[in-house]
UniProtKB/TrEMBL annotation:
GO biological process per UniProt: cellulose catabolic process
Catalytic activity, as annotated: Hydrolysis of terminal, non-reducing beta-D-glucosyl residues with release of beta-D-glucose
SUPFAM superfamilies for this protein: (Trans)glycosidases, Beta-D-glucan exohydrolase, C-terminal domain
Annotated protein name in UniProt: beta-glucosidase
Native species: Neocallimastix patriciarum
Entry annotated with the keyword Signal: yes
Domain of life, per lineage: Eukaryota
Compartments, as annotated in UniProt: Secreted
The protein's enzyme class: hydrolase
Enzyme Commission number, as recorded: 3.2.1.21
Presence of keyword Membrane: no
Pathway: Glycan metabolism; cellulose degradation
Transmembrane segments: none
């Protein structure tokens, strides 16, 4: 067996044995207590205090305990793949692109593939996923998380965490809680009303704790209601470890700890990266370390607090199956392989959102295409992506990766155009005059434009993490205007972390939003533009002008570090984040939450709802009424009984993704569980499911296109007998305009989708054929991609 075949077979065996890694928290606790029984306080302190202060190979490190055969720990960013891997790891799509797929199976596969890359490098803790809420569209790190809706963020987190942890890697869900802007994140207070704190900001963490059993959680830099999270005993100990029943360990965000008494006493379990401040001068100089023993000796906090922190770390390692035979740290194992490349390309394409299409897409029957804009060109790989020079594939900061390459749009489109004998001309600068000159005699002009954002420690073109505004960068609006004025068939492709201003909306025939798609960016957009993939992405947030939102970031230039004086972020919108606010105010957004067009058309019918003991069972029929195969995303919203006062008029509570051949119909079943039928009652200090009144169930394709409605009583007395009321579809004419995709066959589209095959059966088949299968096919089966 050659080396490549050996690697493939090892991968297969790894996936076959993944289930053996499963251990209950109770079993892990028993093993951890036995292991920790003879630890000295010095050894326990070494477990909880980072040592290399980000000067070693890993961004966070815990020292070995040689007496116990403990190799130490490696913690590494991040949500888009292994950071600082020198191009040997896959540069995945951003978290916001994962959310835009609305595809649970696909997100699980992303988690599995990412987790395996961390595992093969001997990395113990993968620092992701990020699950903060997009409450302000200019916030710098919204591309790392899953959008504006807490239910969606929780569902995405569940799949990614389960996928990552199936490999034996510890997923670190972050940032708990309220780190929803970058400016002065280390000297700010997120002042959140109690009901909103639970229903919006804690909710995604509730889900990954309860349903995904996330092994680790990273706390945030900011304060919540005046108390820094790292010192917030109520949130860390009473809520997270107490009420939510979190059994894993809590680590700090990097250099967010400024004391020992309040932070360790509040329930922090690990100080990362350990030093008081950044830099090699603080290796071994920590606010924790030996000062923990001093506090115990002086009665500041009891011995049991140190015992608990050490126990939680070891318990987490047992739960993950890492206490025996875990790989040694080697950050440069090359895992940037064809399977990961294929999966990134698929997710990048499936997360692409078609915002407008007037008979120009998919590309067909043209002889000459003009590609315009620097965003179509190869990217300049500056450190931590702290520049926007060429196409934007990810934002900047700790959430990005070391790219080996990015497939740029110009090269990918040029290669794809050869199949159809289409001539490609281009202008690779953001020069309006040059762009118009190239576009004027082309059959079709595609303008690539961009915006960017990231983490606050980096300033890019005047943007300190958070965006200064929602305008396109580099005079993008002027570029589009100039091209559209000379070519009536103009399409705009946008790479950006979130919503941008689109003053050209009525001037162009097509708008495609690609988000931040990772290394296969150009190939994915070519797949969509030419119809090799039918776009099925949907917006995981509301797209509107900045002034229409109830919230914004605060560009306070003072308060550069932590302290008692803080920038105040008042969450006065309460529960009314995103589409909820637009519903309440009666504001029509540019594009609604969940919006996304297709090259085919879908209809929804036969909505039924039945209240049962485990929750609300909803069924509906989805039909492909167009000429090509495509994937629909039926969405369920609920209006709560009137007993709940001052509440959003409707809440997103369910979805599925359904592949349909042309003319095909399928019944979709969605369960809204009892937690999602409940609201947080501040007086009761708990979630309460209304016992009387009626829920209204609405179904459709996005928050402003919900043509189906039924009512069902909270007590289930009319369960199964709800009368269907069909409302006129508010955006039916927008669903698909100008479909031109006769060359896209159902077979082609179906081949681009992950097959819905039981994972255990797929692995068993791979095992049976391991000695006979072609190597590439074997690896595909081992990864369970196609």
């Amino acid at each position: 067996m050659n080396r490549s075949s050996q690697v493939s077979y090892q991968l297969l065996l790894f996936f076959l044995s993944a289930n053996t890694l499963a251990m209950t928290w109770e079993e892990a606790d028993a093993k951890a207590r036995e292991w920790c029984a003879d630890l000295t306080n010095e050894e326990k302190i070494s477990l909880v205090t980072g040592r290399e202060n980000m000067t070693g190979v890993c961004v966070g490190s815990i020292d070995p305990i040689e007496r116990k055969g403990f190799k130490g720990l490696c913690l590494q960013d991040g949500p888009a793949g292994v950071r600082f891997a020198k191009g040997t790891a896959t540069s995945w799509q951003a978290g916001i692109n994962n959310a835009a797929t609305f595809d649970r199976q696909l997100m699980r596969k992303v988690g599995e593939a990412q987790g395996n890359e961390f595992y093969q490098r001997g990395i113990n803790f993968a620092l992701g996923p990020a699950m903060n809420i997009q409450r302000a569209p200019a916030a710098g790190r919204i591309w790392e998380s899953f959008g504006e809706d807490p239910f969606l963020a929780g569902q995405c987190g569940i799949e990614v965490v389960k996928g990552m942890q199936s490999s034996g890697v510890i997923a670190t869900s972050k940032h708990f809680v309220g780190n929803d802007q970058e400016n002065n994140r280390g000297a700010s207070s997120s002042n959140i009303p109690e009901q909103a704190l639970w229903e919006v900001y804690i909710e995604p963490f509730y889900r990954v704790v309860k349903e995904a059993e996330t092994n680790a959680i990273m706390s945030s830099y900011n304060a919540v209601n005046g108390t820094y999270l790292v010192q917030n005993k109520r949130l860390l100990t009473d809520v997270l470890k107490g009420k939510l029943g979190f059994q894993g360990m809590v680590m700090s965000d990097w250099w967010s700890i400024y004391d020992v008494e309040k932070s360790f006493g509040a329930g922090m379990d690990m100080n990362m990266p350990g030093g008081k401040y950044w830099g090699p001068d603080y290796v071994g100089d920590s606010f924790w370390g030996e000062h923990i023993q001093e506090c115990i000796d002086n009665g500041v906090f009891p011995q049991e607090r140190l015992d608990d922190a050490a126990l939680r770390i070891i318990r987490t390692l047992y739960k993950a199956g890492q206490m025996e035979d875990y790989p040694d740290v080697n950050l440069y194992v090359d895992t940037n392989n064809e399977e990961n490349t294929a999966l990134n390309r698929k997710v990048a394409a499936d997360s692409t959102v078609l915002l407008k299409n007037e008979a120009v897409l998919p590309i067909k029957g043209v002889k000459k295409i003009a590609i315009i804009g620097k965003d179509a060109m190869p990217a300049n790989f500056c450190e931590d992506m702290k520049c926007a020079d060429g196409t934007v594939a990810l934002g900047w900061g700790s959430g990005t990766t070391d790219f080996k390459y990015v497939a740029d749009p110009l090269s990918s489109i040029t290669e794809r155009a050869k199949k159809d004998n289409i001539e490609i001309v281009s202008s690779g600068e953001d020069d309006a005059e040059a762009g118009a000159e190239v576009a004027k005699d082309a059959d079709l002009a595609i303008v690539f434009v961009q915006a960017d954002s990231g983490e606050e420690y980096i300033v890019v073109e005047g943007n300190k993490g958070d965006r200064l505004n929602l305008d396109l960068w580099h005079n993008g609006n002027e570029l589009v205007d100039a091209v559209a004025s000379v070519n009536e068939n103009t399409i705009v492709v946008i790479h950006a972390p979130g919503p941008v201003n689109v003053p050209f909306l009525d001037k162009v025939k097509g708008i495609v939003f690609a988000g931040m798609p990772g290394q296969e960016s150009g190939n994915a957009i070519a797949d969509v533009l030419f119809g090799d993939v039918n776009p099925s992405g949907h917006l995981p947030y509301t797209w509107a002008p900045r002034e229409d939102f109830p919230t914004d970031v605060n560009y306070d230039p003072s308060l550069p570090g932590g302290g008692e004086e803080k920038t105040q972020y008042d969450y006065n919108e309460g529960l009314f984040v995103g589409y909820r606010w637009f519903d309440k105010q009666g504001i029509d957004p540019t594009f609604a939450f969940g919006y996304g067009l297709s090259y085919t058309t879908f209809e929804y019918s036969n909505l039924k709802a039945q209240m049962e003991e485990d929750g609300l069972h909803v069924t509906l029929t989805v039909s492909n009424t167009g000429d090509v195969a495509g994937a629909a995303v039926p969405m369920i919203f609920l209006s709560f009984p009137d007993v709940v006062k001052d509440y959003p008029s409707r809440l997103f509570k369910g979805f599925d993704k359904v592949l349909l051949e042309a003319g095909e119909s399928k019944e979709v079943k969605i369960l809204v569980d009892n937690h999602d039928l409940s609201y947080y009652d501040v007086d009761a200090a708990d979630f309460v499911k209304p016992a009387e009144g009626e829920y209204t169930v609405l179904a459709g394709s996005n928050a402003r296109d919900l043509p189906l409605k039924v009512t069902v009583s909270a007590d289930g007395t009319n369960a199964g007998n709800a009368e269907e009321v069909t409302e006129e579809c508010s955006s039916e004419e927008e669903e698909v305009t100008g479909v031109n995709g006769d060359d896209v066959t159902a077979e082609d589209s179906a081949e681009d989708d992950v097959q819905e095959i039981d994972a255990d059966a797929e692995v068993e088949e791979a095992e049976d054929s391991a000695n006979e299968a072609d190597e590439a096919e074997l690896r595909k089966r081992a990864y369970k991609l196609y």
